[in-house]
């Protein structure tokens, strides 16, 4: 399966990574090379094999649905590039 | 011998006897670190924290309350969140990030009295095999045979370089596809990746959550047992931390493997493998046989498909995990132009913040998870993963106690030498190690010999799930038989 320039542009946008138009051919080529490598997987007979979901056979832990943590908004905001009045600040989203 | 050259076990014994103080060992390491800037192994030095912790450790030792790691100075991989200390995963996108919390592994180590000398470099987000993707520039292998600078391997290359050059007594590493074992092999040290779920992932910057596992990188097998003991715990904060008590790993080091069954997997004899690696493998096999183990030929038929399966699954998980770096909550945010909205903020921030290899993996992951391709790539890879795991289960069910393989397909290569290689060629570094992550098993790399060029080469032992004690014991036998005592000569 080879990736064309339009697909590379679409993938970059889905991944929210800006890629300049002139760099798309190289990206398409790199991604195609990696996907070609993955095509070997088509040789394997996976009939009747379930996709692996858990590395070790274990049930995910459960706990009571109660608040056990929180109350430190200032710590959460401490590393934000832009925080104001107790909130994360971002460019205007709605007019 | 200066104090920074000590092993953990020798330092522990000397500390307990009062022959030396943690402050003295720590100062010796800090001086060695300051004299080793040419290795570019450290991305943050924390001498004040180190000396304060060393003083506290000395008080604890004096009071007779001294766990094995008490007073031992360590390097901490840049992937572990450390409260108030820069934690960047060697990425520009986490520039300036100082966590408000401590990872479970590092907290366990501090609770045991260990000392933090600083943070050590790595490949960006642990994606790489040479530390060349680090935003700090590559770490350099202390082993040198000509004018070239060699890679210490990756992703835990800063950890490996620091331990091999005696800048610390040991370091933490993490291993998603071989990131502890490959750098350990490239620098002549010991590195163990524990069973998935043995060590908490809480507070470790996530790469691929179903594969990531932290472990120690040390000078000896005994040190690995002591340090793993302190790192491992049952942690309610990590939903995949297994509810299995941590046994005494050092007590398992009997040096006796008589009657144990060692599997030699025929599929690991890959085409194009240097003759020296094959020879080393044969020698290692003979060492275990001489120690009384029974050697058996085994087959792990899906080995060939481990690498392609890994390079579907790991990027898929990474694309999801790294979605959190959006320029909002922490780290870097791109400068925005007039009229730029939130989508431009995301796209510019991530384009400027992530390096090329990380971007490539995020995009591959995005692609294999996208509508229309999810079944063909991601689900197929997870099915192949189930088969790889089954291969191991069948071998262990047939009575094999441990599996011996090469650790890497070559010894350390030169920095920049892979610059023109395709991404896939770099991925081949993981060919012997990645199966272990896919199956969630413990694996250890032990230095066994030097190649004709004079560079260290390692062998890997793979153990049964939760059998780290037994695995370490096999590794001890190999270590003793190999008698690897070589050290890099100081040029830095």
Automatic annotation (TrEMBL), chain A:
Gene3D superfamilies: Glu-tRNAGln amidotransferase C subunit, N-terminal domain. Belongs to the GatC family. The keyword ATP-binding applies. Its EC number is 6.3.5.-. GO terms for biological process: glutaminyl-tRNAGln biosynthesis via transamidation; regulation of translational fidelity; translation. It catalyses: L-aspartyl-tRNA(Asn) + L-glutamine + ATP + H2O = L-asparaginyl-tRNA(Asn) + L-glutamate + ADP + phosphate + 2 H(+); L-glutamyl-tRNA(Gln) + L-glutamine + ATP + H2O = L-glutaminyl-tRNA(Gln) + L-glutamate + ADP + phosphate + H(+). The gene is gatC. It is an enzyme of class 6 (ligase). GO terms for molecular function: asparaginyl-tRNA synthase (glutamine-hydrolyzing) activity; ATP binding; glutaminyl-tRNA synthase (glutamine-hydrolyzing) activity; transferase activity. This is Aspartyl/glutamyl-tRNA(Asn/Gln) amidotransferase subunit C. Keywords: ATP-binding, Ligase, Nucleotide-binding, Protein biosynthesis, Transferase. Allows the formation of correctly charged Asn-tRNA(Asn) or Gln-tRNA(Gln) through the transamidation of misacylated Asp-tRNA(Asn) or Glu-tRNA(Gln) in organisms which lack either or both of asparaginyl-tRNA or glutaminyl-tRNA synthetases. The reaction takes place in the presence of glutamine and ATP through an activated phospho-Asp-tRNA(Asn) or phospho-Glu-tRNA(Gln). Heterotrimer of A, B and C subunits. PANTHER family: GLUTAMYL-TRNA(GLN) AMIDOTRANSFERASE SUBUNIT C, MITOCHONDRIAL. Pfam families: GatC (PF02686).
UniProtKB/TrEMBL annotation, chain B:
HAMAP family: GatA. This is Glutamyl-tRNA(Gln) amidotransferase subunit A. It is an enzyme of class 6 (ligase). The gene is gatA. Keywords: ATP-binding, Ligase, Nucleotide-binding, Protein biosynthesis, Transferase. Its EC number is 6.3.5.7. Residues 24-472 form the Amidase domain. GO terms for molecular function: ATP binding; glutaminyl-tRNA synthase (glutamine-hydrolyzing) activity; transferase activity. NCBIfam families: gatA (TIGR00132). Heterotrimer of A, B and C subunits.
């Amino acid at each position: 399966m080879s990736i064309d320039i339009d697909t590379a542009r679409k993938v970059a946008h889905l991944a929210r990574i800006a890629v300049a138009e002139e760099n798309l051919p190289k990206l398409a080529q790199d991604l195609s090379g990696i996907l070609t490598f993955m095509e070997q997987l088509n040789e394997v007979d996976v009939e009747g094999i379930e996709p692996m979901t858990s590395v070790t056979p274990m049930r995910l832990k459960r706990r009571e649905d109660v608040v056990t943590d929180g109350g430190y908004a200032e710590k959460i905001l401490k590393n934000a590039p832009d925080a104001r009045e107790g909130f994360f600040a971002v460019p205007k989203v709605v007019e | 011998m200066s104090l920074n050259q000590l092993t953990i076990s020798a330092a522990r014994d000397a500390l307990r006897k009062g022959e030396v103080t943690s402050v003295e060992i720590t100062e010796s390491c800090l001086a060695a670190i300051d004299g080793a800037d040419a290795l570019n192994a450290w991305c943050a030095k924390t001498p004040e924290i180190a000396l304060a912790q060393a003083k506290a450790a000395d008080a604890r030792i004096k009071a007779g309350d001294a766990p094995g790691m008490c007073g031992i100075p360590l390097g901490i991989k840049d992937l572990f969140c450390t409260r108030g200390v820069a934690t960047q995963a060697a990425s520009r996108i986490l520039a300036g990030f100082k966590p408000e919390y401590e990872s479970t592994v590092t907290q366990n180590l501090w609770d045991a009295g260990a000392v933090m000398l600083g943070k050590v470099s790595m490949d960006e987000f642990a994606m790489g095999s040479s530390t060349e993707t680090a935003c700090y520039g590559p770490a350099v292998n202390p082993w040198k045979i000509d004018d070239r600078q060699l890679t210490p391997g990756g992703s835990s290359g800063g950890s490996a370089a620091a331990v091999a050059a005696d800048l610390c007594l040991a370091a933490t590493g993490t291993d998603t596809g071989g990131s502890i074992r490959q750098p350990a092999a490239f620098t002549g040290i010991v590195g163990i990746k524990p069973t998935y779920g043995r060590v908490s992932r809480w507070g470790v910057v996530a790469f691929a959550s179903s594969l990531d596992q932290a472990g120690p990188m040390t000078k000896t097998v005994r040190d690995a047992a002591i340090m793993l003991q302190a790192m491992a715990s049952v942690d309610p904060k990590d939903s995949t931390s297994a509810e299995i008590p941590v046994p005494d790993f050092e007590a398992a080091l009997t040096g006796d493997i008589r009657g144990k069954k060692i599997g030699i997997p025929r599929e690991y004899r890959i085409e194009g493998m240097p003759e020296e690696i094959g020879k080393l493998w044969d020698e290692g096999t003979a060492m275990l046989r001489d120690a009384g183990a029974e050697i058996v030929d085994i087959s792990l038929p899906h080995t060939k498909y481990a690498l392609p399966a890994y390079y579907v699954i790991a990027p898929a998980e990474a694309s999801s995990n790294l979605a959190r770096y959006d320029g909002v909550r922490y780290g870097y945010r791109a400068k925005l132009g007039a009229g730029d909205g939130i989508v431009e903020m995301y796209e510019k921030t991530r384009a400027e913040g992530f390096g090329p290899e990380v971007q490539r993996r995020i995009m591959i992951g995005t692609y294999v998870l996208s509508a229309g391709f999810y079944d063909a790539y991601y689900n197929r890879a997870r099915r192949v993963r189930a088969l790889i795991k089954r291969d191991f289960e069948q071998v262990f069910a047939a009575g094999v106690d441990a599996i011996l393989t090469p650790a890497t397909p070559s010894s350390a290569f030169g920095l920049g030498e892979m610059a023109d290689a395709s991404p896939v060629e770099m991925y081949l570094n993981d060919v012997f190690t990645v199966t272990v992550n896919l199956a969630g098993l413990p694996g250890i790399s032990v230095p066994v010999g030097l190649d004709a060029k004079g560079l260290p080469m390692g062998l890997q032992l793979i153990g049964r799930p939760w059998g780290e004690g037994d695995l370490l014991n096999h590794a001890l036998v190999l270590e003793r038989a190999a008698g690897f005592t070589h050290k890099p000569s100081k040029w830095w």
